[in-house]
Design goal:
This protein is mostly beta strands and about 525 residues long. The protein is built from 3 helices and 42 strands. It has 2 domains: about 400 residues, Galactose oxidase/kelch, beta-propeller (Methylamine Dehydrogenase, Chain H, 7 Propeller); about 100 residues, Immunoglobulin-like (Sandwich). A hairpin with a 5-residue loop joins strand 18 and strand 19. The protein binds copper (II) ion. The site of copper (II) ion has 3 residues, from loops.
């Protein structure tokens, strides 16, 4: 742990002095009661996606269902390899505040967790599908070093070996061999960033600290494992930053793009290609307006730099970007300003981004705001769950589910058989009566989302050929393209209509060793992470 550089500390102290007090402890119970009264719908969702089609509009703008009353604020949401969703709230508000939601039946199961408050933790899936939760909450800006693991089969929690540092708002990034890199998070004050990266090995159940790579990234950095094995820091939850990449094998941070481009949410929409849009904003800062700007970065180019593309139709902060099986990106929720108490700033319209045209299209509106602490998650049936928002600001004890336009364009292709597991860089077979009509085979890692960033989602379009009812598909070449673990495989027809997902475990026959270099870090003398002159 260290204090951030003095200039940054002074700026933040100034901001904090003007910020609303007791950010994560506010309990607007009257608002919660009002929210319950305002909610319509039912407490269970149905699996059907086409049973309420409202004719032609839905084929162009999609359709929202809900809101459905929920028993907790979905601050954290993770798709499990069982097809269920692990949801977590602030445990001080909802004792043992974790539940599992079944998207097919709409039923919640209790999965009590009482040894730590996992609010504002990091989370990701281990290669076997268990969920690794790092850090959590004791107080605003005070993290815990706890490591908590959820088993989706037994629906039980266990404690792993603790990290060296307490972390509140950390980011987990799964690496090519299934190890998990954990970065950032507050230790015990607003300026006390856990700047030493830590690496968890699920085989040895041991942590490795990497003090030579220390870097005080702002909270919840948007990290991406690139196809070449580097780990990109594209932006963060709270502040714009210059763009850096961590080369673990060389043991160095390298500057990618010195230009500070804002991004409130980010996603890797193709291997090595990142989109970010809107405004990064810590809601503890004084409120400010959001922007609609959108940038893309192609890390497969020799000299990558952010390139501005057409903006969203609406300024947003605290929105979510969700990768879809047809390769497009959904922006949902967020606010025109960072005042979490101003529901008037809510953006209800969703937008779809096409990587082909690099433009946004406004689609259907939600009924509820999705502001700070809201989540969005791709489900195995191709719909997108949005839920939560609150526990600082208005508590949204409800969820809505979006059916994108592709679910209103006719019959869905069918997967009749798919392997449960594949190894890297192999051909495998999926059978479908629609094989001759398939235009894309997409593979999406199961999402794990909180604080406007999905730490796990990634999209791959797999090479394939069709013969009769068989599709011969080429698996991801290695763990840098697709870290070992569980994925949703979709067949997408030539109209862009996806099948239901088949769950596929992707792994190496023998995991390649990942060596971590011991040389000193090299961030670059001219780099100022926070845009503040030294
Ligand atoms: Cu939080």
């Amino acid at each position: 742990m260290c204090w951030r550089r003095l200039t940054w500390c002074l700026v933040l102290i100034g901001l904090m002095a003007a910020a609303p007090a007791a950010a994560h402890e506010r309990k607007p119970n009257a608002e919660q009661r009002a929210a319950k009264r305002a909610h319509v719908g039912e407490s269970r969702t149905r699996a059907g996606v086409a049973d309420a089609v409202s004719v032609s509009d839905s084929a162009s703008i999609g359709q929202w269902s809900g809101p459905f009353e929920w028993p907790l604020v979905a601050i954290h949401a993770t798709l499990l390899r069982t097809g269920h969703v692990l949801v977590m709230d602030d445990h001080t508000e909802v004792p043992a505040g974790a539940k599992v939601w079944d998207p097919v039946t709409g039923v919640f199961s209790e999965v009590p967790m009482t040894s730590s408050d996992l609010y504002c933790s990091g989370h990701s899936a281990l290669p076997d599908g268990r969920i690794l939760v790092t850090g959590g909450h004791t107080h605003i800006y005070v993290g815990i070093p706890d490591v908590t693991i959820f088993d989706p089969d037994t629906r039980t929690w266990s404690l792993g070996p603790p990290m060296q540092y307490g972390r509140w708002y950390p980011t987990n990034t799964t690496l090519r061999d299934g190890r998990v890199l954990v970065l950032s998070g507050s230790v015990d004050c607003a300026m006390c960033i856990a700047d030493v990266p830590e690496l968890y090995d699920p085989v040895t159940r041991a942590w490795t600290s990497m003090p030579a790579l220390r870097l005080a990234l702002p909270l919840y950095p948007h990290m991406f494992l690139l196809p070449d094995g580097r780990v990109l820091a594209a932006s963060t939850q709270e502040d714009p930053i210059p763009t850096l990449a961590l080369d673990l094998e060389a043991g160095a941070w390298r500057l990618v793009d010195l230009a500070v481009r804002d991004g409130g949410s980010s996603a890797m929409y193709r291997p090595g290609k990142i989109i970010k849009s809107g405004t990064a904003r810590n809601p503890d800062y004084p409120p400010g307006p959001a922007v609609a700007t959108t940038y893309v970065l192609d890390m497969t180019q020799p000299s990558p730099a952010w390139r501005e593309t057409a903006p969203m139709a609406f300024p947003r902060t605290q929105h979510n970007l969700t990768l879809l099986p047809d390769g497009n990106v959904l922006a949902s929720g967020g606010s025109r300003n960072s005042d979490v108490f101003d529901l008037g700033g809510s953006v209800y319209e969703a937008e779809l981004w096409s990587p082909d045209t690099e433009t946004w299209t406004t689609v259907a509106r939600t009924l509820r705001p999705r502001l700070y602490h809201s989540t969005a998650l791709l489900l195995p049936d191709g719909r997108v769950l949005t839920a939560g928002g609150g526990r600082f600001g208005f508590n949204e004890l409800n969820a809505e589910v979006y059916s994108p336009p592709y679910l209103f364009k006719g019959t869905r292709p069918i997967i009749t058989a798919a392997p449960a597991a594949v190894h890297f860089n192999r051909a495998f077979t999926v059978t479908s009566p629609d094989a001759s009509d398939i235009g894309m085979v997409s593979l999406l890692r199961l999402g794990s989302v909180t604080h406007a960033f999905n730490m796990e989602q990634r999209f791959l379009s797999l090479g394939f050929s069709a013969a009769g009812r068989a599709l011969t598909i080429h698996s991801p070449v290695d763990g840098n393209s697709a870290p070992p673990g569980h994925y949703m495989l979709f067949l997408v027809d030539r109209r862009g209509v996806p099948s239901l997902a088949a769950f596929v475990e992707v792994s190496a026959e023998a995991p390649p060793p990942l060596t971590v270099g011991a040389t000193a870090p090299s961030v670059g003398a001219s780099v100022d992470l926070y845009g503040i002159a030294p």
